[in-house]
Write a structure and sequence with these properties.
Elements: H1 2-8, E1 18-19, E2 22-23, E3 28-29, E4 33-34, E5 39-40, E6 44-45, E7 50-51, E8 55-56, E9 61-62, E10 66-67, E11 72-73, E12 77-78, E13 83-84, E14 88-89, E15 94-95, E16 99-100, E17 105-106, E18 110-111, E19 116-117, E20 121-122, E21 127-128, E22 131-133, E23 138-139, E24 143-144, E25 149-150, E26 153-155, E27 159-161, E28 165-166, E29 171-172, E30 177-188, E31 193-194, E32 198-208, E33 213-214, E34 218-223, E35 226-228, E36 233-234, E37 238-242, E38 269-272, E39 281-284, E40 303-305, E41 311-312, E42 317-320, E43 323-326, E44 331-332, H2 334-341, H3 362-378, H4 382-398, H5 404-417, H6 423-445, E45 453-458, E46 467-472, H7 485-499, H8 510-538
Parallel strand pairs: 1-5, 2-6, 3-7, 4-8, 5-9, 6-10, 7-11, 8-12, 9-13, 10-14, 11-15, 12-16, 13-17, 14-18, 15-19, 16-20, 17-21, 18-22, 19-23, 20-24, 21-25, 22-26, 23-27, 24-28, 25-29, 27-30, 28-30, 29-31, 30-32, 31-33, 32-34, 32-35, 33-36, 34-37, 35-38, 37-39, 39-40
Antiparallel strand pairs: 41-44, 42-43, 45-46
Helix pairs in contact: 3-4, 4-5, 6-7, 6-8, 7-8
Amino acid sequence: MLDALLDALRDPATGHPHLGNTRFDSASFQGAASFKSASFQGSVSFASAIFHSTAMFISASFHSGAGFTSASFHGDARFDLSSFHDDASFGSAIFHELVMFEHASFRGNAGFDSAAFRHMAFFGWVSFHGAAWFDSAKFEHYARFVATTFKIGAMFKATVFYHNADFEQAVFERALSLGPLMCAGRVVLSGAVFGGPVTVSLATRRLECRRTRWSSTAEVRLRYTTVDFSHAVFEYPLTIAAEAAPFTLPSGQPVAEQALVGAPDATVRIASLRGVDAAHLILADVDLSGCLFAGTVHLDQLRLEGTCSFARVPPGIHWRRGRLVRFTQRRTLAEEHHWRASQPAAVRGWNVAVFGAGSVGPLHLAPVYRALRKAFEDGKHEPGAADFYYGEMEMRRHADDIPGSERRLLNAYWALSGYSMRASRALAWLGAAMFVTIVLLMSFGLPQDSPRQEATGTVPPGGGKVTFQIDKTDPHNPTGNRFTDVRFEKALNVTLNSVVFRSADQDLTTSGAYIEMTSRVTEPVLLGLAVLAIRNRVKR
């Protein structure tokens, strides 16, 4: 019956069906319905129509409004190369099988509100010249919008993707908002272009934004997401922030997150910022423990707001090469974890590099730590800057391009005070140095007895003026019991005064004088390192 109807309406010049106002409301198509290359000059309505088999609208042309509201497609729905010159409505339509809009063109508004896509939906290379509405739509299988162009805007409020959603190389010329959008799988925006100000609101397990271009200000608000921004281009300020509470609709109702049931938490994790110019980038309340920073440009201008967490060193005490080691907790980069885990003598607890992370060594990581240190200093976050200074010095110490003398100096600087960042280490060395000084003074430095003054002179014959010469006897090395309370008190007095460059005015043996001079050089240095370390941890 349908074939006979369309045969009667074929244009003799083209051989394609040529229709005016068309009404197929509530029609039931039991077999394949082919409107291939049909030209609809008037308004078209397939409201509540049921397509039990394939619906073919390939290369169809809709010159006036096209309505498929509440239509049900039980077979494949093919709209490839079709063109909609006016508004097109697919609100509440149900697509049970494959739906394809490849190379389709929408010159008016396109509405897919509350539509249900239960199989793969393919919108590849579609051009939406008006607004595209997908509010409350549900995609139960894979959805592809590859290279699709949205001229006005794309509205995906409360849209749910139960599988992956692919917007690779899509173009959003005047997008005002994208989302709130729920996706149980992965949302791909790699290669997409955003030409105007946009707010992206996504709750998805993974977001890929590699090589995206943002030509205006943008805000990306996320939940449950691990996001990859490798080689993205930001021409204006862009904010990536974690949303603490569920997204809400303009009506004030929270967006249901049933598609993400089973997700561990709503934390937003940044996977990579490699190749990004961070001069316009703002990160707020995100997890950077697994983020790859090597290759990021202008990293010193990165702005960190709220609570941005980094990876930590392995906690506890570990065995390494037959000795116990303990790492002081500090903020570290994921690349340092990867490098240390690859070393032959690595302790357990360092994170192994994931596939595609590449191999980055200390020579590349030192400038990364330096840039992040400056970013923290500019943000008046001195403790965080101190952690990244420690990481920078660690990478310098392990780099292959430094001479041996500099490496030995850095090793001593690390061992004595943790690069002036570990007050406890400097104080421990100071205590040890003072203890050794006291023991040496009690053993060799303090004389047996305090030297007495002696006066000598000659009385002239027959009396007269007498001249006396007052001198001290030379101190004698101690014998017998050297470790007495009195000698300990004297040694402690000499040692404490030497820490602050003072002389105790205590008589010493020749060995004791050299011991005191050595103490007056080393111990004040250790005290200064400890004070500097405390200052670096508490200043604001």
